[in-house]
Design brief:
The chain has one domain: Rossmann fold, CATH 3.40.50. It is built from 8 helices and 7 strands; from the N terminus they run βαβαβαβαβαβαααβ. The protein has a 7-stranded parallel β-sheet, sandwiched between helices.
Length: 265
């Protein structure tokens, strides 16, 4: 198994990508600690992992509370002796759809502040524990909005650009301590709509163009990706497990394109 004997912390473990990654990490042998705000979803994922023979625990935590996140990281080390992998897959409600002329400063700033703060705080909490052992992997999460030009996603597109830049520079900060940093960049994942905040976000676009979220995504996948579809949750989760493993040990400072070809590097 790719992650046998490793310990992974998944921030945002109650979300679609976080939960899928947690299951993939556990399937590959890692002990997983899920962190989130929704106990029912966290417990469901922990039960699924346990039923499949894996090891998982969950904790309720606000990832924007730096002292609490740092205390939690210490408790993980107390319980499992190490933190080998940290994935920050948190999601925060924000506004998409309105053009620049209708976008308020508050709606522009909200995703930039919350996502940037969350990624900084979680990396700050786990990095010292990884550095002491001179090994570890920090995974972040972005979207193609970081590279696309268009209307209706100025705040979140700026946010994703910030996450990718943060990830590249953080790799330079931590590489000398044996810590790798990789940013995962999937595109929209339709099967995540019932699980995550994505539907609420996409509805702003759907209303603007007088369509449904499903119809909007289907049209964009068909005409806007090379593979004619968006990535599946299991594809993103399996790649996260691979890149967190020693088999990807030479990879850091990278943005992993998991868009099915909506962007081409």
């Amino acid at each position: 198994m790719l992650l046998e004997g490793k310990t992974a912390v998944v921030y945002g473990g109650s979300g679609a990508i976080g939960g899928a990654a947690a299951r993939a990490f556990a399937r590959e042998g890692a002990r997983v600690f899920l962190v989130g705000r929704t106990a029912e979803r966290l417990q469901r994922t922990v039960s699924e992992i346990s039923d499949a023979g894996g090891r998982a625990d969950f904790d309720l935590l606000d990832v924007l509370d730096q002292p609490a996140v740092e205390r939690h990281a210490r408790t993980v080390v107390d319980r499992a002796s190490a933190i080998d992998i940290a994935l920050t897959a948190v999601g925060f409600a924000h506004v998409q759809g309105p053009p620049f002329s209708d976008l308020s400063l508050e709606d522009f700033e909200r995703p930039i502040m919350t996502y940037s703060r969350a990624n900084f705080i979680t990396a700050k909490a786990v990095a010292p524990h990884m550095a002491r052992r001179r090994k570890g992997v920090i995974l972040t999460l972005s979207t193609p909005g970081s590279r696309m030009a268009g209307s209706g996603f100025l705040g979140y597109g700026t946010t994703c650009g910030a996450i990718e830049t943060f990830s590249r520079i953080l790799a330079g900060e931590l590489g000398g301590q044996g810590i790798r940093v990789v940013c995962l960049r999937p595109d929209a994942i339709p099967e995540a709509l019932p699980i995550s905040h994505a539907r609420e976000v996409f509805e702003g676009f759907a209303r603007r163009f007088d369509t449904t979220v499903e119809a909007m995504l289907e049209a964009r996948a068909t005409t806007g990706t090379l593979l004619g579809r968006f990535p599946r949750l299991d594809e993103v989760a399996d790649y996260a497990a691979f890149v967190a493993s020693d088999r990807a040990g030479a990879m850091t400072g990278a943005i992993a394109n998991l868009t099915c070809g909506s962007l081409v590097d």
